[in-house]
User: Fold this.
Amino acid sequence: MKRFKNVLLVYPCNDGALERAASLAKTNHAKLTLLRVERELTGTQLITSSGSPALKLQDLVIKEYQSQLKAVIATVKKEGVRVSAKVVVGTPFLEIIRAVISEQHDLVMMSAEGKGGLKERLFGSTSLHLMRKCPCPVWVMKPTQRKPFMRIMAAVDPDPAENSRDALNALILQLAASMAEKDGAELHIVHAWTLFGESIMQGRARMTESEIGGYIQEESDRHQALLDALVEKHTDGSAQVHMVKGIAASVIPEMAKAKKVDLLVMGTVCRTGIPGFFIGNTAEKILDEVDCSVLTVKPATFQSPVKFD
Assistant:
């Protein structure tokens, strides 16, 4: 995790996220910025009293939050961390991404808006917008996350034919392995694969079970070789590796649940040629189903659709 040198923490957040961000900044000798984004107030915005000038309610709110943040960063500074804070007005995800671009932050950290569990979605609008559109890695912490992590899972999709995906897989493994080492956590690596056209083989092509089985075995061997090469290159061999036949949108959440994963590290890859376009249904479905902290990373070629006015 020593790659991160300019961390942005979205505030307010739970104590676990603040402690994790401060610890990361201290270990990396990095700069930490706390950013609070307040939506613009509408309706009555002026407060008046007899003999006093009118005061804008928005200004009072900002001053109050700035005062609160000063107290927070004072505590963090005592730990030897270079930290600053600011309050801005606007749409949260837009202002966060603009801050990332203008200040060249290399990691965004925040608490998930929901609590997760069987009846509540963990990730809210702001975190999902950031996972889709923020140009740097986004680390969303589950509010009830225990510390340290016990089990970390990296989701990879090796394909040497795509340089951007291959580089992204390497980054995913490096980050997951680094965090597992720091926390003394189990490291799990999962790769979901399918045989393209298998349903057609079973239907219109009228192939025998033996013929289909041969194609499945051949494709399985190909994916296994790619996965083995990737893991050998970027880990120390201590990870538990899982290659599962099935749709990634189903396999990854099921594996995360079965292994009681605390943190999932996964990529968001643009496959449409449209700059800033999110990976699509696969990642959306995974984020809908997982109930753990998530660190999402993007390829170096990713361009955020968020622009300055």
